[in-house]
Design goal:
It contains 3 helices and 4 strands, in the order ββββααα. By secondary structure, it is an alpha+beta fold.
């Protein structure tokens, strides 16, 4: 089961899909933004499948609008439902998920190193005074 609707503030979902932006429409999100769809599902790898569809530019032909490109909910729902009926290589989907986790861990480490660098720079300047 998969349920996709327009996000309203305060509504919890399993993940979100960005609806606006030339390069970002269709991108799955862990946290909601102003212009997104909320997705509730019991399919364990749904986020990763949406990621594959977005990276594979499956949603590009659904993007409309010249000033602010966007995807309409009525256009994306049938495409997602169609692709959720297909069989995927679970090893590849799991590998995509594991790589995403590794990237997230590395980003946390980089952020921590940047904080350490900042603190060290501040202390260096203070000690020089």
């Amino acid at each position: 089961m998969i349920e996709i609707r327009v996000y309203k503030e305060g509504v919890k979902a399993d993940f979100y899909i960005q609806s606006h932006g030339d390069k970002n429409a269709g991108r799955p999100l862990k946290e909601p933004t102003r212009n997104c769809f909320a997705v509730k599902t019991d399919i364990p790898c749904a986020y990763d499948i949406i990621y594959v569809l977005w990276k594979g530019k499956t949603f590009n032909n659904l993007i409309i609008g010249s000033v602010i490109p966007f995807i309409r909910l009525c256009d994306i729902k049938p495409v997602i439902r169609e692709y959720f009926l297909k069989q995927y290589d679970l090893k590849k989907i799991n590998a995509i998920h594991q790589i995403a986790n590794l990237i997230e861990e590395q980003n946390k480490k980089v952020k921590l190193l940047e904080e350490y660098r900042f603190v060290l720079a501040v202390k260096t300047v203070q000690e020089a005074l």
